[in-house]
Amino acid sequence: MRTIETIQELKAWVKETKGSGETIGLVPTMGFLHEGHISLVNKAKAENGRVVMSIFVNPAQFGPNEDFDRYPRDLERDQRLAEQAGTDVIFAPSAEEMYPRESQISISAGALADVLCGAKRPGHFDGVLKVVAKLFHLTEADRAYFGQKDAQQLAIIESMVEDYNFPLSIRRGETVREEDGLAKSSRNVYLSEAERREAPLLQQALQLGKQAAIEGRDPVSVVRQYLDGRISGEIDYIELLSYPALAKEIEGEAILAIAVQFEKARLIDNLIFHVKGN
To answer: Where does (R)-pantoate bind (predicted)?
Structure first.
């Protein structure tokens, strides 16, 4: 496995790989890898000749009062895990390498960013699209892999790829969970012991809400009532929307999503399902 830190070296690897007729699968990450990331590598390996993983804590997607500086980082650990999973290349650039000058052109996530996490994180998904678009171009990936835990991000990226005819396909990866149901996340390390015991209740509440939605009842109130008095974190939102359109009117798939702010960690989770049944 190689670790590449410069765009020039990455381009040379891509040229060599494409020249040999190999396909490229891209797994974009911000590092501090967990089983969810590894599951995406496994999926990429099964569908491509070579797998490149990006490890880059993207400053463009963090607001001024968010956790960019304290986001967990451990490149040596990530290198070991990525190599064990069969990753061919890690692309781990600096912020200066990715953004050598202030961008004159911006990408807007549009109305898809006005709900869920985007409603309280203005500019966040614009920053996500900025780095993802660059990674798509730099790696010339045939397929890119994203987890469904970040479902709004996934919907926005899928929309960009479709709207602007990016020459690659997006592959969804199922949310990987702890044995107690908590969605794997790099930010879980911020939870206190008491909060860690509470965190699995989010998924339990969503399951109850899903059943309520299928039965024609209000899932939002069911989720909120279940969590009331059971968790110390503050509920940011609970919403039922269509997926991937993220609209109030639901046809086909729906997403029931939640965000909860604990003392040092903001957890998100969701279920994607058909309201008329699984």
So the answer is: 61, 153
Q: Average per-residue pLDDT in the chain?
A: 96
Q: Where are the domains of the chain?
A: 2-173, 186-272
Instruction: Please enumerate, by residue number, every residue annotated as part of a binding site for ATP.
Output: 30-37, 147-150, 176, 184-187
Is 137 catalytic? The answer is no
Please state the residue numbers annotated as binding site for (R)-pantoate.
61, 153
The single residue of 37, 124, 137, 274 carrying the catalytic annotation is 37
Q: Which fold has domain 2-173?
A: Rossmann fold (3.40.50)
DSSP state of 182: P
Contacts of 186 (CB under 8 A, 6+ apart): 30, 31, 32, 33, 34, 71, 72
Contact (CB, 8 A) for 152 and 129:
no
CATH architecture of the domain 186-272 equals: 2-Layer Sandwich (3.30)
Tens-digit pLDDT profile for the chain (278 aa)? 999 999 999 999 999 999 999 999 999 999 999 999 999 999 999 999 999 999 999 999 999 888 899 899 999 999 999 999 999 999 999 999 999 999 999 999 999 999 999 999 999 999 999 999 999 999 999 999 999 999 999 999 999 999 999 999 999 999 999 999 999 999 999 999 999 999 999 999 999 999 999 999 999 999 999 999 999 999 999 999 999 999 999 988 999 999 999 999 999 999 999 987 65
For residues 73 and 76, give the distance between their C-alpha atoms in angstroms, rounded to a whole number.
9
Binding-site residues, please? 30-37, 61, 147-150, 153, 176, 184-187
CA distance 100 to 102: 7
